[in-house]
Specification:
The complex is a heterodimer of chains A (264) and B (268). Chain A has 264 residues and is α/β, with parallel strands linked by helices. Helices cover 37% and strands 24% of the residues of chain A. Chain A has two domains: 182 residues, Rossmann fold (3-Layer(aba) Sandwich); 68 residues, no CATH class. Chain A is globular, with a radius of gyration of 19 Å. The chains are: A alpha/beta (264), B mainly alpha (268).
Chain lengths: 264, 268
């Protein structure tokens, strides 16, 4: 076990039964590591199995081959050590923002006082301080995703998993949320694995990009955005202007295009 | 706002009407109904014995309550509905939520429960009378049978519609299965369950009247059957009005309960 890795995926494969004794190979022999406190982005065209890999890490699907190790341990099924944020809104509508954020801690037996403090801290961190007593139905889509992020972080997971978390948001909200995630990663030292098909999002967020090819999902290339020189960037427009940004974007576009051709 | 002045602006295709217009329309249709009834009675167009005038029906309704102790019949009917409905809910709610949450439980109970829905509850009346005699039990049993199988199925379907992401979110927050069912699935489905209860309560009133007409000496239905024997059509119509009014009252109570219990469903 690599001491630096929060998460290790080893030769993982997944096939789904599709009836009549046939099966569909969704993921085949994928291996990678997510270093502690890093942002690892799974990128690829649709059908590359990136969401399936994330769901296997979460314990919501079981790998057909290989194994997944988190903090040196194997696991069976979902658990609080791997918190997940979904693309669809998952706020519990019957609870206020505060109670949503406290939910995980409450079911895991965190004391009331400690819960209150931690919830307030993470609600502030995602910029919802004024809305702590609002119900989710009173919030915009971006704000609901902030609630989901605060709720997952407050539960203190070892790895934060995000499945196209900003896919349903409009462009400017998306940028704000991406910048928020960089800020959150810096402030909380959380290991994140983020699934996206958005190149810009991948380049902006990633300390490491895992590019997957489709049908079945295979590891195509592991890319460290060298132009960042090991530093995270806080603003989108700053990133776009940096030397090396457009080369990386062009490279990823080429990879995407190759995959697209394979289908035709 | 200009009122619709021509037929073209009155019959606007799928455009919502103003609150004022819908109030006027709703009131007007009842006005027309009672006007036709009053005129038909006054002009002698209908047999007075079979169709008494509305003012007579309302007079009789008042008289039934004021002078002839009709309220005890009404209370008996209400208590029958409420007791049987509470029993049905006490069984259907946990069972329906469990069936909607655990496919294994659904696989056992759904084939059994769905089949019962095709057996008309009133067809059980003769056997219920033989099993339970003539007391309250057969009436409660009929209402219970009439409601429970639909209620279980409705609650199960609503429970299955709770979005998978909510369940998976709870699991990745570390929730156990019982926590998922009690703290996520149940609160998520509760507003829909209250709607289902509201619909089924209307059905319970239907079975109540059947039970009381067929086999009872007390209650609103029994009063109506007694009135028939003495050709008191005004009392029969009064009974119908009371049943309708009670049904509407309970429906409004459920709607109020829904608004009160689930304030978070209101948009800001």
């Amino acid at each position: 076990m690599d001491q630096n890795a929060a998460l290790e995926i080893r030769h993982v494969g997944k096939s789904f039964d599709i009836g009549r004794e046939q099966s569909l190979q969704a993921v085949s022999d994928v291996s990678f590591k997510a270093e502690k406190n890093s942002i690892c982005v799974l990128l690829g065209p649709s059908g590359c199995g990136k969401s399936t890999i994330l769901r296997m890490i979460a314990g919501l699907e079981t790998p057909s081959a290989g194994d997944i190790v988190i903090g040196g341990r194997n696991f069976d099924g979902p658990g609080r050590d791997r918190g997940m944020v979904f693309q669809a809104y998952t706020s519990f509508d019957w609870l206020t923002v505060r109670c949503n954020v406290e939910f995980g801690m409450k079911i895991n037996g965190v004391s009331r006082k400690h819960r209150r403090e931690r919830a307030a801290h993470f609600i502030d961190l995602v910029g919802l301080g004024k809305f702590a007593d609002a119900y989710p139905s009173q919030l915009s889509g971006g704000m609901r995703q902030r609630v989901a992020i605060a709720r997952t972080l407050a539960n203190d997971p070892e790895v934060l998993l995000m499945d196209e978390p900003f896919g349903a948001l409009d462009a400017e909200t998306r940028w704000l949320m991406q910048e928020l995630m960089v800020e959150v990663a810096d402030k909380t030292n959380t290991t994140m694995v983020i699934v996206t098909h958005d190149l810009e999002e991948a380049i902006f967020l990633a300390d490491k990009i895992i590019f997957l090819s489709s049908h079945p999902g295979r590891l195509k290339e592991e890319i460290v955005p060298a132009f960042k020189q090991g530093q995270r960037i806080g603003e989108k427009e700053q990133a776009v202007k940096m030397a090396g940004y457009s080369e990386l974007e062009a490279h990823l576009m080429r990879l995407m295009r190759e995959e697209g051709r394979g289908l035709e | 706002m200009a009122q619709p002045s021509s037929s073209k602006s009155f019959f606007r295709l799928r455009k919502p009407v103003s609150r004022r217009q819908s109030l006027i329309s709703g009131f007007a249709i009842w006005l027309v109904f009672f006007a036709v009834w009053i005129i038909a009675s006054a002009a002698g167009l209908v047999n007075e014995l079979l169709v008494p005038a509305p003012q007579q029906v309302f007079g009789t309704t008042y008289e039934l309550f004021a002078e002839r102790g009709f309220s005890s019949d009404v209370l008996i009917s209400i208590s029958r509905v409420l007791i049987a409905f509470a029993m049905a809910t006490a069984v259907a709610l946990p069972l329906g939520v469990l069936m909607g949450s655990f496919p294994a439980i659904e696989a056992i109970s759904a084939p059994f429960i769905s089949a019962w829905r095709y057996l008309p509850a009133p067809s059980f009346i003769p056997i219920l009378l033989m099993w339970f005699g003539t007391g309250e039990a057969p009436k409660l049993a009929l209402l219970f049978i009439g409601v429970i199988f639909f209620l279980v199925t409705l609650i199960m379907d609503h429970t299955k519609n709770v979005r998978e992401e909510l369940v998976e979110t709870a699991l990745t927050l570390g929730a156990s299965r019982s926590v998922v069912v009690l703290k996520v699935i149940l609160p998520a489905v509760l507003p829909d369950i209250v709607v289902a209860l509201r619909q089924m309560l209307a059905m319970a009133w239907t079975y109540l009247v059947i039970a009381e007409i067929v086999a009872s000496t007390t209650g609103i239905g029994a009063m109506m059957m007694r009135a028939r024997r003495f050709l008191n059509t005004d009392e029969i119509l009064a009974g119908i009005i009371i049943i309708g009014a009670l049904g509407m009252m309970f429906d409004l109570l459920f709607a109020a309960l829904h608004r009160w219990a689930f304030p978070y469903l209101r948009k800001a």
